[in-house]
Structure formats: C-alpha cells, structure tokens
C-alpha cells in the first residue's frame, strides 16, 4: 500500500473503507502487526523522537487521523486518501466483524473501562464477539503477569480481566 510522505513519516494513503478492508484482510491472513492512528501531533513527535518514528515506520498500517496529513497525501497524488478518525475506524471494524465473525479482545484502560466498552459494543452491534478484556496495571507487566495474559489469550488461566469464553 502506498504511503504519503508527511515530513518523513509514511502515512498510508487510505480512507476509512480501505483501512477497514486492510485490517480484515490481515486478520483473515493471520498477519500480525499493529495500527497507528496519527495526525500532525504524531508526525511532529516522530521528528523529535527517533524511537517513535521507528514505531510508525514498522507499523502494518498508519492511518491519517488528521486533515493536514490528508492534504499532503492528496498533494502527492493520493486522490482517494481521506481522514481515518480513530474511533470511526474502531467502530467500522467492529461493525464489519459481526458479519465476518472476527473476534475482539479489549486491552487497556482503567479497571472496568474495557468491560464497559464490551457491554456498549454488544448493545450497539448485536452478534459481536468480544472474547475477553484486560486492564493492565499502569506500569510494565511483570514476567508473571505477561505469562498469565498469554495463558488467557491462548485459552488458559484467568487473569485480572474477564475469562475468555471458548464458546464465543
């Protein structure tokens, strides 16, 4: 996928629909990676922080969450590039998953927030499959916490989050 060059940061020349399709395709192909939702702030931070720029460079997908990034992309000839607002992307991926059967695991936030989001998603998208949640501590995970989380994700032990239901 083509990337627009925004001050040396490669931002994929996508719009909401294309970004959601790329995510679905990656899930279908069992491709692992991460998605960065970035606008001008992220581009400027990449100018100051080489480690952050490296994170953006290695991302499976960097979506333009800001109109100025879209303007640059269009100026470079990416006519169909459009703003991909992070919450809109999340909702579009969730909406499509009801039909595709893709599952979701919600990670992060204060205790209880991921579970609240799970309930809101179930209400908004009947048939969505949220297989678990986890609210990690606001510090690096210990080796024991990492092992417990990996066990939960593979259907093993229960951690601070909700247990994965293998029937979902």
Could you describe the 3D structure shown?
By secondary structure, the chain is an alpha/beta fold. It has 7 helices and 6 strands. It has helices at residues 16-28, 40-48, 50-58, 67-75, 86-100, 113-124, 143-153; strands at residues 3-6, 9-12, 35-38, 61-64, 103-107, 129-134. The strands form 3 sheets. It has a two-stranded antiparallel ribbon with strand order 1-2. Strand 1 (3-6) and strand 2 (9-12) form a beta hairpin. It starts with a strand and ends in a 15-residue tail after the last helix.
Write the topology of this structure:
Blueprint: E1 3-6, E2 9-12, H1 16-28, E3 35-38, H2 40-48, H3 50-58, E4 61-64, H4 67-75, H5 86-100, E5 103-107, H6 113-124, E6 129-134, H7 143-153
Parallel strand pairs: 3-4, 5-6
Antiparallel strand pairs: 1-2
Helix pairs in contact: 1-5, 2-3
Overview in brief:
The protein is of the alpha/beta class and 168 residues long.
- For the terminal residues, how far apart are their CA atoms? 33 Å
Overall outline: globular
Overall structural class, as computed from helix and strand content, comes to alpha/beta
Q: Looking across the biggest beta sheet, what order are the strands in? A: 1-2
Question: Describe the biggest sheet?
Answer: 2 strands, antiparallel
Number of helices: 7
State the domain count. 2
- Rg for CA atoms: 18 Å
- Binned strand content: 15-25%
Order of helices and strands: EEHEHHEHHEHEH
Mean pLDDT over the residues:
89
List unreliable stretches of 5+ residues.
156-168
The count of strands amounts to: 6
Helix content: 40-55%
């Amino acid at each position: 996928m083509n990337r627009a060059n925004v001050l040396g940061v490669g931002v994929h020349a996508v719009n909401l629909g294309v970004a959601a399709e790329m995510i679905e395709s990656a899930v279908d192909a069992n491709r692992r990676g991460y998605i960065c939702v970035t606008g001008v702030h992220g581009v400027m931070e990449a100018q100051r922080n080489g480690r952050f720029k490296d994170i953006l460079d290695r991302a499976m997908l960097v979506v333009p969450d800001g109109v100025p990034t879209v303007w640059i992309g269009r100026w470079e000839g990416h006519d169909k590039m459009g703003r991909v607002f992070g919450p809109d992307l999340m909702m579009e991926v969730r909406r499509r998953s009801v039909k595709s059967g893709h599952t979701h695991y919600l990670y992060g936030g204060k205790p209880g927030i991921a579970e609240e989001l799970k309930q809101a998603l179930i209400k908004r998208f009947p048939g969505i499959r949220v297989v678990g949640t986890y609210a990690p501590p606001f510090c690096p995970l210990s080796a024991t916490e990492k092992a417990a989380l990996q066990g939960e994700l593979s259907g093993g032990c229960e951690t601070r989050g909700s247990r994965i239901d293998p029937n979902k």
